[in-house]
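Researcher: Sequence recovery benchmark, item below. Answer with residues only.
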C-alpha cells in the first residue's frame, strides 16, 4: 500500500493507495466520516482486489491543518486534488457518515467521470453544526481512542465556524449513476443510525434506481459493527460495474 501526500495549494493531503487502475474494474475512492483519517479505510483495500484510494481531509490524520478553510467547498477541493493526482476515471465513490455529504456534493458535480456511488448512513444534508460542536467532539472517545488522536481541534472549530448548511434533497434526482445506500437498522446499537425512515424514503423516491442495503446488526458505525458484510457489499457493488 502506497502512502503519499498531494498538494492542494498550501494544504498537504495524505493519501493511501492500493492496487493499480484497471480498464475493466472501477477504482474506488473512499471518503471517511467527520474525524476519520485514511487509515480507517485500510480494511477495505486489504480485503478487495480493486484499486482503492483513500484520503485524510485537512485537519485529519497526517494531512496538514490550515487555520481556516473548512466549509463544503474546501473539502471538495481536497477531493479534487486527490482525484486529479491519481488520475481517477470511471471510478466509484464511497462516503460514510459526514463523508457521505462530501461524497454527495462531489458526485453531483462530477458524476460524468464516475460509475457509481455508495452512501453510508447519512441524510442528504450537509448540516451546519450548532454551538458547542467542536467542544463536544473534542471530548469524545471511540473504541477507547480519543477523537483528537485523529482530528485536530482547529479543524473541529473551523467546521463549527465556517460550515454553511446545504440540503441536497432537491438535487438527488439529478444523480444518473448507480447509487447504493447502506443503512444501519439495529435500534439497540450504542450509536444509533443517523437515517430516519423519512430520509431513506427521500433517497429511494428521488433516485428510483437507488438500492438499499440494510445492516440489521448495526447502528451508525456499520464499518466496524458489520465489517465483513460491509466489505462484501462494497466488493459486490464494484464488481457489478466491471466492464466484461
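Model:
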Amino acid at each position: 500500500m502506497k502512502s503519499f501526500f498531494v498538494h492542494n495549494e498550501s494544504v498537504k493531503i495524505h493519501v493511501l493507495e492500493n492496487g493499480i487502475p484497471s480498464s475493466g474494474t472501477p477504482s474506488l475512492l473512499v471518503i471517511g466520516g467527520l474525524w476519520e483519517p485514511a487509515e480507517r479505510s485500510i480494511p477495505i483495500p486489504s480485503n478487495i482486489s480493486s484499486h482503492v484510494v483513500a484520503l485524510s481531509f485537512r485537519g485529519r490524520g497526517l494531512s496538514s491543518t490550515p487555520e481556516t478553510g473548512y466549509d463544503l467547498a474546501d473539502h471538495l477541493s481536497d477531493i479534487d486534488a486527490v482525484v486529479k493526482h491519481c488520475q481517477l476515471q470511471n471510478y466509484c465513490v464511497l462516503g460514510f457518515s459526514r463523508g457521505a455529504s462530501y461524497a454527495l456534493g462531489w458526485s453531483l458535480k462530477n458524476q460524468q467521470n464516475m460509475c457509481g456511488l455508495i452512501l453510508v448512513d447519512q441524510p442528504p444534508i450537509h448540516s451546519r453544526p450548532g454551538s458547542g460542536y467542536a467542544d463536544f467532539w473534542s471530548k469524545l472517545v471511540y473504541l477507547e481512542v480519543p477523537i483528537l488522536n485523529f482530528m485536530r481541534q482547529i479543524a473541529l472549530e473551523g467546521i463549527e465556524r465556517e460550515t454553511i448548511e446545504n440540503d441536497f434533497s432537491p438535487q438527488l434526482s439529478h444523480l444518473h449513476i448507480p447509487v447504493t445506500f447502506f443503512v444501519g437498522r439495529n435500534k439497540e446499537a450504542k450509536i444509533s443510525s443517523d437515517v430516519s425512515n423519512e430520509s431513506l424514503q427521500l433517497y429511494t423516491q428521488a433516485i428510483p434506481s437507488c438500492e438499499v442495503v440494510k445492516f440489521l446488526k448495526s447502528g451508525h458505525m456499520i464499518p466496524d459493527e458489520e465489517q465483513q458484510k460491509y466489505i462484501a457489499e462494497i466488493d459486490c457493488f464494484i464488481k457489478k460495474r466491471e466492464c466484461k
